[in-house]
Design a protein that fits this description.
Strand order of the largest sheet: 3-4-2-1-5-6
CATH topology of the largest domain: Rossmann fold
CATH class of the largest domain: Alpha Beta
Radius of gyration: 23 Å
Strand content: 15-25%
Structural class: alpha/beta
Number of helices: 9
Length: 295
């Protein structure tokens, strides 16, 4: 029914399998809508009732999703519920917010345990991927053999570290899967581009990657770069460049060469959390004044 998200069911059904569970969904974004769709079979048979959606985006307040209101977190006190399921990847921060509003921590559960990979306030590593603190990526994005710096935000449905097939062979088609019964391990695909597959992809710090971007293995994306939605990146991207297109091309440089050099010297992404907090208003200055303040 919703076998791909058993952890949610396990946590929900611990409460009382004989009682309808009243659920609030935090997040009126795509993840929240997906969660609502996944829960529909249980809603239909009366096991679950979704009371409302909660969101921090004031633009959404007052709207509805399939007849369910979107409310601000402060309105929670007006509703009766058993659980709040947090759909966005920022589970830890949202949990803190809800606890500050008086919600019991036991009533808050994540949509997916993968939130610990998708976002974290510490450097983290899993498999062949390393990600710096505060960087995040959406659930639909695939990361392969890559290093991602700090304070990067990566959109949904991206593929980073893609290696493709070896075009120098007679065919790129995996014939052995169909004509040689000894080959069943997709990891042993002889048509894969094994040279590119071994090349590590580097995303440096403070990089913004739009939705549905493809970045090929071995590419380095510089600090402060911006990659437009649906771009296909096949070669290195300079620091603070804006690139877009298929294949991607430099659209412009964000700042002058001198400002870029100054920002690379400052390396604000290496600052401590306390320093960032104390200087938070400086990030709203124009870049020239920011540089003057921190050179």
């Amino acid at each position: 029914m919703i076998d791909n998200k058993p952890e949610i069911l396990d946590k929900m059904l611990v409460h009382d399998v004989f009682k309808q569970i009243r659920v609030m969904i935090f997040g009126a974004n795509d993840d929240g809508r997906e969660l609502f769709r996944l829960l529909k079979p249980l809603i239909v048979i009366g096991m679950i009732d979704v009371i409302a959606f909660i969101d921090n985006d004031s633009r959404l307040i007052g709207r509805e999703i399939e007849g369910k209101k979107i409310i601000i977190p402060e309105k929670l006190r007006n509703y009766k519920y058993d659980l709040i399921v947090v759909a966005p990847i920022f589970f830890v921060e949202i949990t803190r917010q809800l606890i500050d509003l008086g919600v019991s921590e036991e009533r808050i559960i994540p949509y997916s345990e993968d939130h610990m990979r998708n976002f974290g306030d510490l450097d983290r590593e899993f498999g062949n991927v390393k990600i710096g603190k505060y960087s995040y990526y959406k659930r639909g994005t695939k990361l392969i053999n890559c290093d991602i710096g700090r304070f990067c935000h990566i959109g949904d449905n991206c593929a980073i570290g893609l290696f493709g097939h070896d075009t120098s062979q007679v065919t790129t088609y995996p014939l052995k899967y169909h004509f040689d019964n000894s080959v069943v391990d997709v990891g042993q695909d002889s048509t894969a581009d094994n040279v590119r597959k071994l090349q590590r992809t580097i995303i440096k710090n403070d990089v913004y990657i739009g939705e549905r971007v493809t970045i090929f293995a071995g590419v380095t994306v510089g600090n402060g770069a911006v990659i437009g939605a649906r771009a296909v990146v096949t070669k290195d991207v300079p620091d603070y460049a804006v690139v877009a297109g298929v294949p991607s091309q430099i659209v412009k440089m964000r700042f002058s060469e001198k400002i870029v050099d100054d920002l690379l010297d400052i390396q604000w992404w290496q600052w401590s959390d306390d320093k960032i907090k104390s200087c938070i208003e400086d990030f709203h200055l124009d870049v020239e004044n920011f540089v003057l303040s921190h050179k």
